[in-house]
Design a protein that fits this description.
Elements (H helix, E strand, L loop, with lengths): L3 H25 L16 H17 L4 H42 L3 H4 L15 H21 L4
Helix pairs in contact: 1-2, 1-5, 2-3, 2-5
């Protein structure tokens, strides 16, 4: 059994993840293969996937259907979360990771006496900037529309 909507959304996620590689290279001049599987960055794979599903559903079934309403609400929640809650958590992680250096600077020559350094840094690239969500949404909408018009109507 094949689920064209799910396959379309997964293809959009994959495309967004793969696009992160050359876009990161263009920005930094370095190839980082971890970008292909990590969260955060340009474009948002989360936004791409849910928008692809929503555009697919709208194209195939119409915007007045329960299927579209469900996928649209899912998209809103996921993109809000990526842009706000997860992005703020990433910003807090940056500050927590910087605490070690701040404490060591305050302790002067003997940081180990007053403070034990964290073994692992918190992941800082959790969420997305609004432009990363917008880019993922545009990519997803293209995938969803193409997936919808090329699938057979039941």
């Amino acid at each position: 059994m094949s689920n064209r909507g799910l396959l379309t959304a997964l293809a959009a996620v994959g495309a967004a993840q793969l696009l992160k590689l050359p876009l990161h290279y263009a920005k930094t001049g370095q190839w980082d293969l971890r970008r292909a599987i990590g969260s955060g960055g340009m474009p948002s794979a989360h936004s791409s996937g849910v928008t692809a599903l929503t555009a697919y559903t709208a194209t195939k079934y119409g915007v007045r259907t329960p299927e579209f309403a469900i996928s649209a609400m899912l998209s809103i929640v996921v993109m809000y979360d990526a842009m706000n809650i997860r992005r703020h958590a990433g910003e807090i992680a940056v500050q927590v990771n910087d605490l070690d250096e701040d404490v060591e600077r305050l302790a002067g020559k003997h940081p180990g006496i007053y403070h034990k350094r964290r073994r692992e840094r918190l992941k800082e690239s959790l969420g997305h900037q609004p432009r990363e969500v917008a880019a993922g949404s545009v990519l997803g909408a293209l995938f969803g529309f193409i997936g919808g018009i090329t699938s057979f109507r039941r």
